[in-house]
Amino acid sequence: MNNNILSRQVRRNGRLGERYTEIQHASGLKVFVYPKKCSSVYAVLQVGLGSMDSEYLDADGNTCTMPLGTAHYLEHKMFESEHGDVMNDFSEMGANVNAYTSYTETCYTFSTCQ
After folding, report:
1. Statement: residue 42 has pLDDT above 60
2. Are 31 and 25 in contact (CB under 8 A)?
3. Which pTM does this prediction carry?
């Protein structure tokens, strides 16, 4: 097992009747892999920071306050790099990207053909 992966478990989603793999990364990131038989590949990165969030705990457990709208701001910053808009890089590879912020989360979506 990769040194950065703490656990890997195959689970079953009763509602969908499908199996998936849940991976816990050392960084705290949880990855859920749902294998599908289709001609496209989809990925969603969900971050637990939404438009209504104005506080978070730092590594030492201290409460930090941030302005409302920070999640939406970060949603847009995610696609910036030193050489321009990352969306153009994905487009050149034949992929589509998008993002949205709800009250409780920010999601980044990626799709491409196999």
Report:
1. yes
2. yes
3. 0.69
